[in-house]
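dumping this here before i forget
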Amino acid sequence: MPILEFSESSITPLKQSTFSRFNIDERKDLQRLLRDNFKVIDREILIISEEFSNWQDSKRRIDLLGVDTLGNLAVIELKRTEDGGHMDLQAIRYAAMVSTLTFDQAVEAFSAHLSKMGRSDDARALLLEHLESEAPDENFAKDVRILLISQNFFPEITSSALWLRQYNIDIRCIRLTPYEFDGRMLIDAQEIIPIQAAGEYQVKLRAKSATERAERAYNIDFTRYDIEIDGKKYPN
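structure:
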Protein backbone atom coordinates (compact mmCIF):
# COMPACT_ATOMS: atom_id res chain seq x y z
CA MET A 1 0.00 0.00 0.00
CA PRO A 2 1.29 3.49 -0.81
CA ILE A 3 1.80 6.27 1.71
CA LEU A 4 -0.91 8.87 1.14
CA GLU A 5 -0.88 12.63 1.54
CA PHE A 6 -4.25 14.01 2.67
CA SER A 7 -5.24 17.59 1.89
CA GLU A 8 -8.53 19.48 2.05
CA SER A 9 -9.30 18.71 -1.60
CA SER A 10 -7.50 15.47 -2.46
CA ILE A 11 -5.66 12.33 -1.47
CA THR A 12 -2.34 11.91 -3.28
CA PRO A 13 0.01 8.93 -3.11
CA LEU A 14 3.62 9.85 -2.37
CA LYS A 15 6.15 8.99 -5.05
CA GLN A 16 8.03 5.81 -4.25
CA SER A 17 11.78 6.22 -4.65
CA THR A 18 15.05 4.33 -4.09
CA PHE A 19 18.05 4.74 -1.80
CA SER A 20 20.27 5.25 -4.83
CA ARG A 21 18.03 8.13 -5.94
CA PHE A 22 19.01 9.94 -2.71
CA ASN A 23 22.64 8.80 -2.93
CA ILE A 24 22.28 6.75 0.25
CA ASP A 25 25.33 4.53 0.67
CA GLU A 26 24.78 1.11 2.19
CA ARG A 27 27.58 1.27 4.76
CA LYS A 28 28.37 4.95 5.18
CA ASP A 29 24.72 6.05 5.49
CA LEU A 30 22.18 3.25 5.98
CA GLN A 31 24.32 1.16 8.31
CA ARG A 32 25.50 4.19 10.31
CA LEU A 33 22.01 5.57 10.79
CA LEU A 34 20.54 2.24 11.87
CA ARG A 35 23.53 1.59 14.13
CA ASP A 36 22.80 4.79 16.04
CA ASN A 37 19.00 4.55 15.95
CA PHE A 38 18.18 0.85 15.94
CA LYS A 39 15.47 1.24 18.57
CA VAL A 40 13.17 2.53 15.80
CA ILE A 41 13.42 -0.94 14.22
CA ASP A 42 13.44 -3.09 17.36
CA ARG A 43 13.37 -1.41 20.77
CA GLU A 44 14.58 -4.60 22.50
CA ILE A 45 17.91 -4.77 20.66
CA LEU A 46 21.11 -3.06 21.81
CA ILE A 47 23.82 -2.78 19.13
CA ILE A 48 27.13 -4.01 20.56
CA SER A 49 29.28 -4.14 17.44
CA GLU A 50 29.56 -2.94 13.85
CA GLU A 51 31.43 -4.90 11.17
CA PHE A 52 31.92 -7.68 13.73
CA SER A 53 34.60 -10.20 12.70
CA ASN A 54 35.97 -11.59 15.93
CA TRP A 55 36.82 -15.09 14.70
CA GLN A 56 39.89 -16.80 13.34
CA ASP A 57 40.71 -17.32 9.68
CA SER A 58 37.77 -15.32 8.36
CA LYS A 59 37.43 -11.89 6.78
CA ARG A 60 33.64 -12.04 6.87
CA ARG A 61 31.94 -9.25 8.81
CA ILE A 62 28.49 -8.92 10.35
CA ASP A 63 26.99 -5.53 9.49
CA LEU A 64 25.55 -5.04 12.97
CA LEU A 65 25.58 -7.35 15.98
CA GLY A 66 23.07 -6.82 18.75
CA VAL A 67 21.75 -8.35 21.97
CA ASP A 68 18.08 -8.36 22.91
CA THR A 69 16.70 -7.98 26.43
CA LEU A 70 16.56 -11.77 26.89
CA GLY A 71 20.25 -12.16 26.10
CA ASN A 72 19.80 -13.52 22.60
CA LEU A 73 22.27 -12.36 19.97
CA ALA A 74 20.90 -10.58 16.91
CA VAL A 75 22.70 -10.83 13.57
CA ILE A 76 21.61 -7.86 11.45
CA GLU A 77 22.33 -7.78 7.72
CA LEU A 78 21.59 -4.71 5.61
CA LYS A 79 21.16 -4.11 1.88
CA ARG A 80 20.11 -0.94 0.10
CA THR A 81 19.31 -2.96 -3.04
CA GLU A 82 15.85 -3.61 -4.45
CA ASP A 83 16.16 -7.40 -4.18
CA GLY A 84 18.13 -8.22 -1.01
CA GLY A 85 20.92 -10.04 -2.83
CA HIS A 86 22.01 -13.21 -1.00
CA MET A 87 21.78 -11.75 2.47
CA ASP A 88 19.88 -14.73 3.88
CA LEU A 89 22.77 -17.11 3.20
CA GLN A 90 25.27 -14.67 4.70
CA ALA A 91 23.19 -14.16 7.82
CA ILE A 92 22.71 -17.89 8.44
CA ARG A 93 26.47 -18.41 8.18
CA TYR A 94 27.14 -15.52 10.56
CA ALA A 95 24.53 -16.73 13.06
CA ALA A 96 26.27 -20.10 13.24
CA MET A 97 29.65 -18.42 13.68
CA VAL A 98 28.56 -16.22 16.62
CA SER A 99 26.42 -18.89 18.31
CA THR A 100 29.31 -19.77 20.67
CA LEU A 101 29.95 -16.16 21.74
CA THR A 102 30.29 -15.83 25.52
CA PHE A 103 29.17 -12.95 27.69
CA ASP A 104 32.77 -11.83 28.26
CA GLN A 105 33.43 -11.88 24.50
CA ALA A 106 30.30 -9.82 23.93
CA VAL A 107 31.50 -7.29 26.53
CA GLU A 108 34.90 -7.14 24.80
CA ALA A 109 33.24 -6.50 21.42
CA PHE A 110 30.92 -3.90 22.93
CA SER A 111 33.81 -2.15 24.66
CA ALA A 112 35.72 -1.92 21.37
CA HIS A 113 32.59 -0.62 19.65
CA LEU A 114 32.03 2.09 22.27
CA SER A 115 35.67 3.12 22.07
CA LYS A 116 35.43 3.41 18.29
CA MET A 117 32.39 5.65 18.80
CA GLY A 118 34.41 7.90 21.08
CA ARG A 119 32.64 6.78 24.23
CA SER A 120 34.24 5.70 27.51
CA ASP A 121 31.19 3.99 29.04
CA ASP A 122 31.54 0.75 31.00
CA ALA A 123 30.48 -1.83 28.41
CA ARG A 124 29.80 -4.55 30.99
CA ALA A 125 27.60 -2.27 33.08
CA LEU A 126 25.67 -1.04 30.03
CA LEU A 127 25.06 -4.58 28.80
CA LEU A 128 23.89 -5.80 32.22
CA GLU A 129 21.62 -2.78 32.49
CA HIS A 130 20.13 -3.65 29.09
CA LEU A 131 19.57 -7.22 30.31
CA GLU A 132 18.11 -5.92 33.60
CA SER A 133 20.48 -8.19 35.48
CA GLU A 134 23.22 -7.84 38.08
CA ALA A 135 25.29 -10.71 36.67
CA PRO A 136 25.53 -12.57 33.36
CA ASP A 137 23.01 -15.37 32.90
CA GLU A 138 24.24 -18.85 32.02
CA ASN A 139 21.78 -18.85 29.11
CA PHE A 140 23.34 -15.77 27.50
CA ALA A 141 23.40 -16.14 23.69
CA LYS A 142 21.50 -19.41 23.92
CA ASP A 143 19.65 -18.39 20.75
CA VAL A 144 20.61 -16.21 17.78
CA ARG A 145 18.06 -14.04 16.00
CA ILE A 146 18.45 -12.95 12.37
CA LEU A 147 17.17 -9.63 11.04
CA LEU A 148 17.35 -8.97 7.31
CA ILE A 149 16.79 -5.33 6.38
CA SER A 150 16.53 -4.26 2.75
CA GLN A 151 14.59 -2.10 0.34
CA ASN A 152 13.04 -5.30 -0.99
CA PHE A 153 13.60 -9.06 -1.11
CA PHE A 154 13.86 -11.75 -3.73
CA PRO A 155 11.06 -14.35 -3.41
CA GLU A 156 13.83 -16.88 -2.71
CA ILE A 157 14.74 -14.96 0.43
CA THR A 158 11.21 -14.68 1.77
CA SER A 159 10.55 -18.36 0.99
CA SER A 160 13.72 -19.37 2.82
CA ALA A 161 12.79 -17.22 5.82
CA LEU A 162 9.30 -18.70 6.04
CA TRP A 163 10.70 -22.22 5.80
CA LEU A 164 13.30 -21.57 8.52
CA ARG A 165 10.64 -20.14 10.84
CA GLN A 166 8.82 -23.47 10.65
CA TYR A 167 11.83 -24.91 12.46
CA ASN A 168 11.80 -22.21 15.15
CA ILE A 169 14.62 -20.12 13.67
CA ASP A 170 13.84 -16.50 14.56
CA ILE A 171 14.52 -14.86 11.20
CA ARG A 172 12.78 -11.65 10.22
CA CYS A 173 12.56 -9.61 7.01
CA ILE A 174 12.14 -5.86 7.39
CA ARG A 175 11.45 -3.85 4.26
CA LEU A 176 12.49 -0.18 4.10
CA THR A 177 10.64 1.59 1.30
CA PRO A 178 11.85 5.13 0.49
CA TYR A 179 9.36 7.80 -0.59
CA GLU A 180 10.03 11.31 -1.87
CA PHE A 181 8.18 14.22 -0.29
CA ASP A 182 9.09 17.89 -0.87
CA GLY A 183 12.63 16.86 -1.77
CA ARG A 184 12.99 14.84 1.42
CA MET A 185 13.18 11.08 1.87
CA LEU A 186 10.56 9.37 4.03
CA ILE A 187 10.90 5.69 4.96
CA ASP A 188 8.09 3.19 5.37
CA ALA A 189 9.52 0.44 7.60
CA GLN A 190 7.48 -2.77 7.49
CA GLU A 191 8.22 -6.15 9.05
CA ILE A 192 6.97 -8.40 6.26
CA ILE A 193 8.11 -11.67 7.86
CA PRO A 194 6.60 -12.63 10.16
CA ILE A 195 3.32 -10.92 9.40
CA GLN A 196 2.17 -9.92 12.86
CA ALA A 197 -1.49 -10.65 12.21
CA ALA A 198 -0.59 -14.20 11.21
CA GLY A 199 1.46 -14.90 14.34
CA GLU A 200 -1.08 -17.15 16.09
CA TYR A 201 -1.75 -19.04 12.87
CA GLN A 202 1.99 -19.69 12.46
CA VAL A 203 2.23 -21.02 16.02
CA LYS A 204 -0.61 -23.44 15.31
CA LEU A 205 0.99 -24.46 12.02
CA ARG A 206 4.31 -25.21 13.74
CA ALA A 207 2.50 -27.20 16.43
CA LYS A 208 0.68 -29.21 13.78
CA SER A 209 3.92 -29.90 11.92
CA ALA A 210 5.65 -31.00 15.14
CA THR A 211 2.78 -33.38 15.88
CA GLU A 212 2.90 -34.88 12.39
CA ARG A 213 6.68 -35.40 12.59
CA ALA A 214 6.33 -37.10 15.99
CA GLU A 215 3.59 -39.36 14.64
CA ARG A 216 5.78 -40.42 11.72
CA ALA A 217 8.78 -41.03 13.98
CA TYR A 218 7.02 -42.98 16.73
CA ASN A 219 3.83 -44.16 15.04
CA ILE A 220 1.71 -42.58 17.78
CA ASP A 221 -1.59 -40.84 17.11
CA PHE A 222 -1.06 -37.52 18.90
CA THR A 223 -4.43 -36.18 17.78
CA ARG A 224 -5.81 -37.73 20.95
CA TYR A 225 -3.63 -35.40 23.04
CA ASP A 226 -3.22 -31.66 23.47
CA ILE A 227 0.04 -29.83 22.83
CA GLU A 228 0.50 -26.81 25.07
CA ILE A 229 2.50 -23.79 23.80
CA ASP A 230 2.73 -20.59 25.84
CA GLY A 231 -0.32 -21.58 27.85
CA LYS A 232 -2.41 -22.42 24.77
CA LYS A 233 -3.39 -25.96 23.83
CA TYR A 234 -3.35 -27.27 20.24
CA PRO A 235 -5.47 -28.65 18.79
CA ASN A 236 -8.34 -26.87 20.50
